[in-house]
Design goal:
Helix content is 37%, strand content 16%. The chain starts with a strand and ends in a 7-residue tail after the last helix. Helix 5 packs parallel to helix 8 and helix 8 packs across helix 10. The strands form three sheets. It has a seven-stranded parallel beta sheet with strand order 3-2-1-4-5-6-10, sandwiched between helices. Helix 4 links the parallel strand 5 and strand 6. The chain has 345 residues and is of the alpha/beta class.
């Protein structure tokens, strides 16, 4: 099996690459490496790496590939809000270019990294893949639009699947400290205090980055027919938490830390997500990480690396800050950014 990963040097991609290589799978990486100066550890490269903008890929780049795992794209709400046009250009147009060229090259399977964030302000009950979506941000809207358009491409030997990721946390060679758990652990270990900007009553499904990679790997073993043109929540059962519960868990794990909330500020998004379909598809699969264990792992890694409060706050580990810093330093203006290489998760 030959697998091409777009965004293979990103937060998720760098872990997924290692997992697939360990399995003996032939991996091709495709990444423009915009975040080359944002490494936390050594990124293991596959045998073949391509530095190509996803919006200008050609069919020959996918020659001999069996599966494309598409991770490349603007990574979160904050980055997506820098420019609606930029988000549409990279997340939607770039994704469709990759899919169209892959299909033209005869690639049979296409794994699209979507997000549970598309549920937006979901109902209080567990949300399944059949629950209504409520995309609130440019990022969310791009994910849903991609799912819809990829579904129109399905058929004629091309089998897409839409993997709606929970809120990812944990250690990666391309660590991010702008996701909820990672941000809270960084705050507690370096500053001794988590200051939530809302009441923290929103629900989120949390999943460790290593378990995301292992889940993708396990899904590769299924026949395309079983997951053809379907959305799948990539979440772990019993790992939905309110944001305030995460803050409490972090301060319990890290001595001499505390948390506060802005209890008069309501959360914009809240989604409590069901993982039953994934459990049914992979009945023998076991997740390696629970939230408490992931918190301890991340705290140990940050302390072991000597990450300071200033570094935790810096653009090195925060995607939207890194993009803004490029603009402020004059390294690129917005029009140049729109013509730059694809960003990576």
């Amino acid at each position: 099996m030959k697998v091409l990963i777009t965004g293979h040097r990103g937060y998720i991609g760098s872990v997924l690459t290692q997992v697939l290589l360990y399995r003996g799978i032939e991996v091709i990486g495709l990444d423009a490496d915009l975040y080359s100066d944002c490494a936390f550890g050594r990124v293991r490269e596959p045998g073949t790496s391509l530095s190509i903008d996803i919006r200008v890929v050609e069919a020959h780049h996918f020659s001999g590939v069996d599966v494309v795992i598409h991770l490349a794209g603007i990574a979160d709400d904050a980055s997506g809000d820098l420019s609606a046009q930029l988000t549409e250009d990279i997340n939607f147009a770039g994704t469709m270019r990759v899919a169209q060229m892959a299909k033209a090259a005869g690639v049979g399977r296409f794994f699209f990294a979507s997000s549970c964030s598309v549920y937006g302000k979901g109902a209080q009950e567990l949300l399944t893949e059949n629950s209504p979506v409520c995309p609130l941000s440019n990022y969310d809207k791009s994910k849903i639009l991609c799912e819809q358009e990829l579904s129109r491409l399905a058929g004629d030997g091309f089998s897409p699947v839409y993997l709606r990721l929970g809120t990812v946390y944990g250690v990666s060679p391309k660590l991010r400290l702008d996701t909820v758990v990672n941000d809270f652990v960084g705050a507690a270990t370096t500053a001794g205090r988590i200051a939530m900007k809302t009441a923290g009553l929103a629900w989120r499904p949390f999943i460790h980055v290593e378990d995301v990679a292992r889940t993708f790997s396990a899904l590769l073993s299924l026949s395309p027919q079983r997951i053809h043109d379907r959305a799948i929540n990539i979440v772990q059962r019993h790992e939905n938490y309110r944001i305030a519960q995460v803050a409490e868990a972090v301060t319990e794990a890290i001595p001499d830390s505390q948390w506060t909330g802005a209890f008069d500020v309501a959360d914009t998004k809240s989604y409590h997500v069901c993982g039953e379909q994934l459990a049914h598809l992979l009945p023998g699969f076991r997740f390696n990480w629970k939230l408490a264990e992931g918190i301890r792992q991340l705290a140990a890694a940050l302390q072991g690396a000597g990450v300071t409060s200033a570094e935790w706050r810096s653009d090195r580990y925060r995607r939207v800050m890194w993009l803004r810093s490029l603009l402020e330093r004059g390294a690129m203006n917005l029009s140049a950014l729109q013509n730059a290489h694809a960003l990576c998760l």
